[in-house]
């Protein structure tokens, strides 16, 4: 079993946000189209969209012409934001988020805790530095300008 692996919902969320980031700003896409294009089961898509909407990443529109769009510019949405919307705060080890998770019950933090805290800080910083506008440009093969197809 992997030590650190994002769940399937997070992978789907990456796909959805990237898909929307590749479209012109403000473009609305219906759920069925998103599900088909990104190969996501439609019932699972709705659950993912609720989490992304609650986090302020996606905006939901009701009605005949309804669907989903990015709630903010793609350059402000990071991998870290999507991960945290889907899974909560990133933690490479239990003791970094839950001090009581250590079964040794030390009065101080051990050297392993300190080392993992440094790794986690670097990991979180890296995830927070990668935005979906950059990823969309790489996906479309265009470094400048907006793309309407992804």
Question: Topology, please?
Answer:
Elements: H1 8-21, H2 31-38, H3 42-54, E1 58-61, E2 67-70, H4 79-87, H5 94-97, H6 111-128, H7 132-140
Antiparallel strand pairs: 1-2
Explain this structure:
It comes from Anaerospora hongkongensis. One of its GO terms (molecular function) is DNA-binding transcription factor activity. This is BadM/Rrf2 family transcriptional regulator. One of its GO terms (cellular component) is cytosol. It holds the Pfam family Rrf2. The structure is a single chain. The chain is mainly α and 150 residues long. It has a domain at 8-88 and 131-143: Arc Repressor Mutant, subunit A (Orthogonal Bundle), CATH 1.10.10.10. The protein is 50% helix and 5% strand. The chain has seven helices and two strands. It has helices at 8-21, 31-38, 42-54, 79-87, 94-97, 111-128, 132-140, and strands spanning 58-61, 67-70. The chain has a two-stranded antiparallel ribbon with strand order 1-2. A hairpin with a 5-residue loop joins β1 and β2 (67-70). 19% of the residues are buried. The model is unreliable at 144-150 (pLDDT under 50).
Identify the notable features of this structure and list them briefly.
single chain, 150 residues, mainly alpha, Arc Repressor Mutant, subunit A, two-stranded antiparallel sheet, disordered C terminus
Rg value: 18 Å
Q: What overall form do the CA principal axes indicate?
A: elongated
Strand order of the largest sheet: 1-2
What percentage of residues falls in helices of 4 or more residues?
40-55%
Task: Using the 3D structure, state the CATH architecture of the domain at 8-88 and 131-143.
Answer: Orthogonal Bundle
Quote the distance from N terminus to C terminus: 33 Å
GO molecular function, one term: DNA-binding transcription factor activity
Protein name: BadM/Rrf2 family transcriptional regulator
Pfam families: Rrf2
InterPro entries: TR_Rrf2-type_CS, Tscrpt_reg_Rrf2, WH-like_DNA-bd_sf, WH_DNA-bd_sf
């Amino acid at each position: 079993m992997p030590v650190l692996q994002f769940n399937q919902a997070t992978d789907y969320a990456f796909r959805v946000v990237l898909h929307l980031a590749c479209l012109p700003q403000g473009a609305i896409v219906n759920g069925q189209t998103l599900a088909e294009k990104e190969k996501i089961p439609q019932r699972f898509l709705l659950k993912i969209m609720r989490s992304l909407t609650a986090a302020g990443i996606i905006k939901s529109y009701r009605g005949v012409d309804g669907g989903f769009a990015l709630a903010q510019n793609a350059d402000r949405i990071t991998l870290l934001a999507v991960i945290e919307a889907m899974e909560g705060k990133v933690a490479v080890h239990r003791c970094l988020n839950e001090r009581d998770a250590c079964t040794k019950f030390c009065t101080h933090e051990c050297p392993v805790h300190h080392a993992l805290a440094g790794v986690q800080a670097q990991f979180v910083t890296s995830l927070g530095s990668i935005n979906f506008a950059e990823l969309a440009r790489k996906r479309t093969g265009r470094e400048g300008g907006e793309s309407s197809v992804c």
